[in-house]
TrEMBL record:
UniProt name for this protein: Type II secretion system protein L
GO BP annotations, alphabetical order: protein secretion by the type II secretion system
SUPFAM superfamilies xrefs: Actin-like ATPase domain (SSF53067)
GO cellular component entries: Gram-negative-bacterium-type cell wall; plasma membrane; type II protein secretion system complex
Family to which the UniProt record says this protein belongs: Belongs to the GSP L family.
Purpose of the protein: Inner membrane component of the type II secretion system required for the energy-dependent secretion of extracellular factors such as proteases and toxins from the periplasm.
Domain spans labelled GspL cytoplasmic actin-ATPase-like: 5-239
Record's bilayer topology term: Single-pass membrane protein
Location relative to the cell: Cell inner membrane
Domain GspL periplasmic: 246-398
Length: 401
């Protein structure tokens, strides 16, 4: 069960910041609100380890559908700001344009876009980053209301405002003071409300969705995964983060595996269970085994037993043999940068460990050789060859026979 964090932000100082922690099966875990943007620091801890999404008040985002002279393409995307200049009351450079889905209207190609104040959006992301809240998804809040039949308005009350959605690409927030005029102008045929609507103007027949009355953010969270649109694009695209487990594997699969296996054998702890790991990790574990024991056939269902058997066989060698050499080699690996083992070969009779290595330059090999000799090992360095920007070579470590 994965937990997620939803934060709703309004540019008005009068509006609170609402938040919701919920699970993938829509179970509400916690919720609350804060009075101002600076209070986001209170959500830093809640954001750690949870997928975070930001809902911007629809009053901060203008949704438009633009007719195009031809089918949507890259050139039209570059020309879009100039096409909008006459429709904007401000300089087009002050507006951030987010691209939605292309479509057609009366057999003419169209594109859905969202307009937002560029500076306001930049400041918001800066505040979020300052508080270590990294949101991959930013969506106008009212766009997450259920999409109903044509000319049927979906509404929900939040903090004295009404969030409204009409069709696939029309969302807004209305205030009680002027909401009646706006709803009259929409001329909708029916209003479906997901919270009590006694205060909502009588401009069309109302349909109460009482079975779905709940926290407004919980209602919006249900549609989050069904909405492809995301304001985090272009200059505001979310930075791709590399998972920590991938960084660990990528830094040196062979060396890390040898260190892990040695630690397991010496300390007597259980072999790390592979069940429950991602498919990528399982594949990497198989590749590691094949590289460490190239002459052994891999049986995926019995991989753990195979590893345990190989570790027992290694641990039974004279004077520690392989484990002693591997332990000293791994300790050196952690001290030297730009140094990556590719293959390992162990000669039991000669108690010799042969490592094929890729390094940044020739000096790295000399540095490694010096460190290993200081640890009392006999070190032989094979021929070194350039391979593009790297140097490939072999190091032989020999212990007592």
């Amino acid at each position: 069960m994965t937990e997620k964090l939803l934060i709703r932000i309004d540019q008005s100082a009068k509006q609170a910041i609402h938040w919701l922690v919920y699970s993938t099966d829509q179970q509400i875990i916690a919720s609350g609100e804060y009075k101002q943007l600076s209070d986001l620091a209170e959500l830093t801890e809640k954001a750690q380890g949870r997928e975070t999404s930001i809902l911007l008040s629809a009053s901060m985002v203008q949704l438009k559908t633009i007719e195009l002279p031809t089918k949507w393409n890259r050139k039209l995307e570059q020309a879009l700001p100039f096409m909008l200049e006459e429709q904007l009351a401000c300089d087009v450079d002050e507006v951030f344009i987010a691209i939605g889905e292309p479509g057609t209207k009366d057999d003419k190609p169209t594109i859905n876009i969202a307009l937002c104040d560029r500076v306001l959006l930049a400041e918001l992301f800066a505040v979020l980053e300052e508080h270590q809240i990294f949101a991959k998804h930013v969506v106008p809040d009212a766009l997450l209301l259920p999409e109903l039949a044509e000319n049927e308005l979906a509404v929900v009350e939040l903090d004295g405002q009404w969030l409204c959605r009409l069709g696939a690409w029309h969302a807004c927030v209305i205030e009680p003071s002027w909401g009646a005029d706006y709803l009259h102008a929409l001329a909708v045929e029916r209003i479906s409300h997901y919270s009590p609507a006694d205060a909502l103007p009588e401009v069309a027949p109302k349909v109460a969705k009482e079975a779905e009355y709940e926290l407004p953010l919980a209602l919006l969270a249900k549609n989050l995964t069904n909405t492809a649109f995301n304001l985090r694009q272009g200059i505001f695209a979310a930075k791709k983060s590399t998972p920590q487990w991938w960084k660990d594997w990528q830094s040196g699969l062979i060396a890390a595996s040898v260190a892990l296996f040695g630690f397991v054998a010496v300390q007597g702890i259980q072999v790390v269970k592979l069940k429950g790991q991602a498919e990528e990790v399982r594949a990497e574990a198989i590749a590691t085994y094949q590289q460490a024991f190239p002459n052994k056939r891999v049986r995926e269902a019995l991989l753990r037993r195979q590893i345990e058997g190989e570790l027992k066989a290694i641990s039974a060698t004279k004077q520690g043999g392989f484990l002693d050499l591997a332990d000293k080699f791994v300790s050196v690996y952690s001290q030297v940068k730009d140094f990556q083992p590719e293959t390992l070969r162990y000669d039991h009779k000669r108690n010799e460990l042969r490592i094929r290595v890729k390094a940044k330059d020739f000096q790295v090999f000399g540095q490694v050789k010096t460190i290993l000799e200081q640890k009392g090992l006999t070190v032989q360095q094979g021929s070194l060859n350039n391979d593009g920007d790297a140097v490939i070579g072999e190091i032989r470590l020999r212990g007592d026979v």
